[in-house]
Amino acid sequence: MSIPLPEYFTPHVALVRDYTAGGGMGGGYGDAREVRGFSEDDQKAVAGNDGAEVTSSAQHHINFDEVVPLGSLVTIWPGLTGEREARVVAIKRGQHPDLPAFQTLYLE
Question: In the chain, how many domains are there?
């Protein structure tokens, strides 16, 4: 079990629609659910799932144990003027036995 992020590290709520892979009909998305974290707008070049470089325009940092599949849709800043929905193109995870564990969702 990992150490969760303290509440003051997760002041923002994002809406996540999990990507579900499909058979011959392709994939789909689940219902929106709230995921607490820390959202930031910051452009970064990251390696996507296929290894190609993609630009991430925002990141949402969340608890390590939260499950968000690659390709999921995340709405950051819901209800605010900067609200937007973007696809998860990469995920970075960090864990240490004595520190809070986290993962970063890189959004398209």
Answer: 1
